[in-house]
C-alpha cells in the first residue's frame, strides 16, 4: 500500500537522523535517541487512536485492547497482523512478530543486532500511545533474537 | 459481517494519515525535546532545515521505484507531462490529495503546485520562534530525489504556505536540466 511505503521510508530516515547520536556519542546520547523515537511513536499512536469511532474506544477488557493492537493497528500500520499474543492474565502481554517489516532491511547481518533497538523504539511508543487513547497506561519494551522476528512486551500495571 | 467492513475502513483511514501523522509528530517531538536546551537549539534547526533536505532526497530516490512499479506510468516526454503525473498520480497515490497546476513560465520550465493546505503540517504543533518554511524541506527533497532518478534535475521550493498565513500553499517547481547518464571517470 502506497501510504505504508512512504511511512517506512520516513521511519528509516528518522532512525538514521535521530539514532546517529552524534550530539553525544556515549550511552547517554543513545538513550536520548531512543527516547525521542519512542516519543514520536507515542504521539502517532495517540493520534491514530483518536481517529477511531467512539464504539472502538469503549474497550472494557484489557485483552480486547491488546487484540485491537495485534489486528487493527498492526494491519493499518504494517499490513499484517501480529503473529502471536501471550499473556499471564496479570497485566503482562507479549506480542510476537515473526517478520517485522521495519526490521526486514536489517535482517541480513548479525552485526546489526545492536542497532535493532533504534528500529523498534518508534513502534514501542506507537503501542503505548494507542493504548493510552484506549484508556490504558502501559510500559512497552522490545526484544529481538533472530531478525526480523521481534517481541513487544506490554505491561499494564494494576491500578 | 459489518464488523469486518468497519474494521477495514478504520484501518484504511488510519493508514492514509500515517505518513503525515508521523511527520507532524517528528517535528513536534524534536521541538519539545530541544526547546530548553540552548546549545542544542542549533541542532534542531540543523536537523529540520539542513538535514531534512537530504533526508527527503533519500526518500525520493527510493520512492520513485515504488511509484513506477505501482503506477505503470511511462516515460514523460516533457515537463508538462511530468507536472501532470506528479500532481494527479503521485500526490494522489501517496498523500491522497491532488494539487492544481498553475503559473507556467513562458518557456515551460517552471510551474506551481497549489495545495489548499500544507499536508505535512496538519499535525504539527509549532513553537513560536521557528520559521514554518523549514518544515517543508522534506517534501522538496523528496521531489528532487525522485525526479533525479528519472534523469531530471529540478528545484522545488515552497513559495507560499497557509501555515504562514498565506491563502494557499504553493510549491514552485523549476526544471534545471536533463541529467545524462555519465560514464565513470576514466572511461571513454
TrEMBL record, chain A:
Q: Which GO biological process annotations does it have?
A: vesicle-mediated transport
Keywords, A to Z?
Endoplasmic reticulum, ER-Golgi transport, Golgi apparatus, Phosphoprotein, Transport
Source domain of life? Eukaryota
Its main localization is: endoplasmic reticulum
UniProt subcellular location: Endoplasmic reticulum; Golgi apparatus, cis-Golgi network
Q: Which InterPro entries match?
A: NO_sig/Golgi_transp_ligand-bd (IPR024096), TRAPP_component (IPR007194), TRAPPC6/Trs33 (IPR037992)
Q: What are the annotated GO cellular component locations?
A: endoplasmic reticulum; Golgi apparatus
The family annotation for this protein states: Belongs to the TRAPP small subunits family. BET3 subfamily.
Please describe what this protein does. Answer: May play a role in vesicular transport during the biogenesis of melanosomes.
Q: Self-association or partners: how does it assemble?
A: Part of the multisubunit transport protein particle (TRAPP) complex. Heterodimer with TRAPPC3. The heterodimer TRAPPC3-TRAPPC6A interacts with TRAPPC2L. Interacts with TRAPPC2L.
Name the UniProt record assigns to this protein: Trafficking protein particle complex subunit 6A
Automatic annotation (TrEMBL), chain B:
Q: Which PANTHER family match?
A: TRAFFICKING PROTEIN PARTICLE COMPLEX SUBUNIT 3
Q: Which domain of life is it from?
A: Eukaryota
- Quaternary data: Homodimer. Component of the multisubunit transport protein particle (TRAPP) complex, which includes at least TRAPPC2, TRAPPC2L, TRAPPC3, TRAPPC3L, TRAPPC4, TRAPPC5, TRAPPC8, TRAPPC9, TRAPPC10, TRAPPC11 and TRAPPC12. Heterodimer with TRAPPC6A. The heterodimer TRAPPC3-TRAPPC6A interacts with TRAPPC2L. Heterodimer with TRAPPC6b. The heterodimer TRAPPC6B-TRAPPC3 interacts with TRAPPC1 likely providing a core for TRAPP complex formation.
Q: What does this protein do?
A: May play a role in vesicular transport from endoplasmic reticulum to Golgi.
Query: What's an example GO cellular component term for this entry?
Result: endoplasmic reticulum
Please provide the Gene Ontology terms (biological process) for this protein.
vesicle-mediated transport
The protein's matches in Pfam families, at most eight in alphabetical order, are given as:
TRAPP (PF04051)
Its keywords, alphabetically, are: Endoplasmic reticulum, ER-Golgi transport, Golgi apparatus, Lipoprotein, Palmitate, Transport
CDD domains in alphabetical order:
TRAPPC3_bet3
Tell me the protein's name.
Trafficking protein particle complex subunit
Q: Which Gene3D superfamilies match?
A: Trafficking protein particle complex subunit 3
Locations listed in the record: Endoplasmic reticulum; Golgi apparatus, cis-Golgi network
Matching entries from InterPro entries are given as: Bet3, NO_sig/Golgi_transp_ligand-bd, TRAPP_component
What family does the database annotate? Belongs to the TRAPP small subunits family. BET3 subfamily.
